[in-house]
Amino acid sequence: MVPIPVFWTKYTATVRARNLKVVPCENCSTEYLYILEREGSGIGTSVYALNDAGAADHAKAAADDTLQSVLENDFDPVPCPVCGHYQRYMFPKLMETKGMGVLAVKVMLIVGGCLAALGALDLRAGESARRTWNTELGEVPCSSWRD
Predict the structure, then answer these.
(1) In this structure, which long-range contacts are made by residues 112-118, counting pairs with CB atoms below 8 Å and at least 24 apart in sequence?
(2) What does the pLDDT look like over 74-84, one tens digit per residue?
(3) Residue range 8-25: average pLDDT?
């Protein structure tokens, strides 16, 4: 079998744009605007350099299509400037922007607090067990028992 060399040229394009988004507030019925900024990217490939111009044009067109779709369908979690309410559809993205770091810190603090509380309870139980010694005649302080 004879190896056949294949080469290609990959073109990428990135475009950025802004769009005004109109949001009706669910809480106070105010309509407010914010600017949504996004970028789109596209890729075009030309095998054996047969269609370099077409690949570059395809990359640009794909980037434009991607950007247009993102600007139409995406949103940012922006609260109402009048009442401060986030719209219901914004909550998943609002929680997503908080990041896993905040969640990890919360979990670590809760676990650390529980462990500290258990350790404090264990120490107190150990101290009370060392203070007295149960005998048939009653409780005897440990210090007088050991002396």
Answers:
(1) none
(2) 999 999 999 99
(3) 96
DSSP state of 50: S
- Specify the residue for token string 């005649």: 137
State the Rg of the chain over Cα: 33
Number of Cβ atoms within 10 Å of the Cβ of 13: 19
Q: Quote the longest CA-to-CA distance of the chain.
A: 103
Give residue-wise pLDDT tens across range 105-134.
788 888 888 888 887 776 665 555 555 555
The whole-angstrom separation of Cα 146 and Cα 10 is 85
Return the ∠ at Cα 134 (arms to 131 and 140), rounded to 5°: 55
First-to-last C-alpha distance (Å) of the chain: 96
- Burial status of residue 107 (CB atoms within 10 A of its CB: 0-12, 13-18, 19 or more): exposed
Three-state secondary structure call for residue 129: helix
Quick one: how far is CA 103 from the chain centroid? Answer: 9
